[in-house]
Design brief:
- It is a single chain.
- With about 100 residues, the protein is mostly helical.
- The chain has a domain at about 5-40: Glu-tRNAGln amidotransferase C subunit, N-terminal domain (Histone, subunit A, Orthogonal Bundle), CATH 1.10.20.60.
- It has three helices and two strands, in the order H-H-H-E-E.
- The protein has helices at about 5-15, 20-40, 75-80; strands spanning about 85, 85-90.
- A two-stranded antiparallel ribbon has the order 1-2.
- Strand 1 (about 85) and strand 2 (about 85-90) form a beta hairpin.
- Helix 1 packs across helix 2 (about 20-40).
- The longest helix is centred in the first third of the chain and has 22 residues, at about 20-40.
C-alpha cells in the first residue's frame, strides 16, 4: 500500500506532528513499507489455528508439598520480644465490648 504525501501530512496532523516537506517525502515510502508488512501479517493462513491467550501451554511450576521437620516451639519463641502462654504476645488492637 503506497501512501501519498498528502496522506502522510494528514496522519501527521492527526498526531499533532509538525513535519517539513523533506520529512514528509522521506516518511512516505517508509510508512508505505510498514503498512505493506502489516498487510502480510494479515494474510497469514490461520483459519486452522485456534485462538490462544498465550503462545505456550500453561504449566504448574510449583513443587510438590512434602513434610519436613520444623523448628521446636522453644526455638521459635526464643526470638519473640514477648511471650505469653507459649504464644507470641502482641498489643491488643481491638477493644473488648461490654
Amino acid at each position: 500500500m503506497a501512501l501519498s504525501e498528502d496522506e502522510v501530512r494528514h496522519v501527521a496532523r492527526l498526531a499533532r506532528l509538525s513535519l517539513t516537506d523533506d520529512e514528509v517525502a522521506a516518511l512516505a515510502p517508509q510508512l508505505s513499507e510498514i503498512l505493506g508488512y502489516a498487510e502480510q501479517v494479515g494474510q497469514v493462513a490461520a483459519a486452522e489455528v485456534a485462538p490462544t491467550t498465550h503462545p505456550f501451554a500453561p504449566t504448574d511450576v510449583a513443587r510438590a508439598d512434602e513434610r519436613r521437620p520444623s523448628l521446636a516451639r522453644d526455638e521459635i519463641l526464643a526470638g519473640a520480644p514477648h511471650v505469653e502462654q507459649d504464644r507470641f504476645a502482641v498489643p491488643r488492637i481491638v477493644a473488648e465490648e461490654g
